[in-house]
Amino acid sequence: MRRTFPILVCFSFGMTMLVQFFVPSKLSTDAYNEITNWVQIIYAFALIVGVVGLLKYHFSRVSRRERGWFYNLVTVASLIVMSLLGFIGGRGDGGSFMWVFNNMMAPMQATVFSLLAFFVASAAYRGFLARNLEAFLLLFSAVMIMFGIASVGNAIPPFSDIANWILINPSMTARRGIFIGVGLGTIAVSLRVILGVERTYLGKE
Amino acid sequence: MNSGLICVSLFTADGAGIWIASILTLAIYSFLYKDNPIYRFSESLLIGISVGFLLVTTFDTTLLPKAFEPVGKGLSVMFGIGGFGSIISFIWLLIPVALGLLMFARFVPKYAWMSRVALALYIGFGAGASIPANMQSYILRQIDATIRPFLHIDSFWSLINAIVILAGLISTLFYFFFSKEQKGAFGKITRLGTFYLMIFFGATFGYTVMARISLLIGRLTFLLKDWLGLIS
């Protein structure tokens, strides 16, 4: 019961979604929309469960005064304050919730992503050595794209033309090969899940 | 360019926002020196704020309009206040809410298995919906885009490009076929596939670097222009 019933639910809803695609009708479209709504509601509850789990983890570290507990406290406090600002203070433009988003969250996220520029540059410096033909192609393609996109390279026709040709021909076709592999792999895994062969999502007994 | 430092005022809502954003930006960049308490503080702050933001927006866009408001309306009908038509549709609506609430059974070890039902529905939906979607977007459209250039050949170079694209797709697919040892004629085709993959990885790398550098330029512009007023 504890494992069989969830497998049956997975099979039923998986087959329903699969069949509704091949039987276009008002009923199948309505069923699709209804189940999509259900899934969104379940996702929202799952998110709350995740937040509760996160709070439990950080609270336990703070209460045991584990190493670095102050940072756990910062995470918990900022999560609670942000939630309260949204739920009590309102979520409209000009409110404190959006003020925190615009002046703290968005700049910090952009900075974290931009931090990667330094690390990829350092990795490229260490790793981009044209030891063989494959390594040379990797280096050549990367350099052409970087120059082709930058304004200085974009002004010089060979760079921009070569970059464009690489992007829409050899690079795109290799991407297509990977996409087809990803598509076939996803279909195979989805079938395994629907048929109950793949059960890791059920966890341990 | 301005001759001196003209920092934005700290005593307005916008000015205070710029000051805080600048200090947090510098706090995160301090990681470039080495891992330090200031960076770890801002990292923890970012995690907390991001999760709080996601929680509030999910409540706003999903839970409130799709679950709580309709359930509230349904309850008011049951107690004879509103005009909600059918009791059956109310009970129908309660199913996903009940399944969502079952997710909380995870916190009670004895009943933790009950949360699997909601999870199974979610995964079953994803698996079932992804099969036709993947078949269309990842397989059929890609094959279509590979063959279509042969229907529009109007010059020598368009023929060359069409051949480059077709040869690339076939050799890349051959490269990922691991059931046969990659040697002989088959090995030569897979080696060609490796060349295409290297070009793709290089292009993707170059694109990623440029995207991150444009973000870096954005942050530096913010610091030098909006905060310090060094550039106009």
Low-confidence runs of at least 5 consecutive residues of chain A: none
Give the mean pLDDT of chain B.
89
- Helix share bin of chain A: over 70%
Span of the ends, CA to CA of chain A: 12 Å
Count of alpha/pi helices of chain A: 8
Q: How many β-strands of chain A, per DSSP?
A: 0
What does this structure look like?
The complex is a heterodimer of chains A (205) and B (232). Chain A has helices spanning 4-22, 26-63, 69-87, 96-127, 133-149, 151-154, 157-168, 170-194. By secondary structure, chain A is mostly helical. In chain A, helix 2 (26-63) packs across helix 3 (69-87). The mean pLDDT of chain A is 92. With 232 residues, chain B is mainly α. Chain B has a domain at 35-145. Chain B is 74% helix and 0% strand. Chain B has six helices and no strands. In chain B, helix 1 crosses helix 2 and helix 1 packs across helix 6. The longest helix of chain B has 44 residues, at 184-227. The mean pLDDT of chain B is 89.
Keywords:
heterodimer; A: mainly alpha; B: mainly alpha; 6 helices; 0% strand; flat
Record the SSE blueprint.
The complex is a heterodimer of chains A (205) and B (232).
Chain A: H1 4-22, H2 26-63, H3 69-87, H4 96-127, H5 133-149, H6 151-154, H7 157-168, H8 170-194
Helix pairs in contact in A: 2-3, 3-4, 5-7, 7-8
Chain B: H1 13-29, H2 37-78, H3 87-102, H4 115-147, H5 156-175, H6 184-227
Summarize the structure.
Chain A has 205 residues and is mainly alpha-helical. Chain A contains eight helices and no strands.
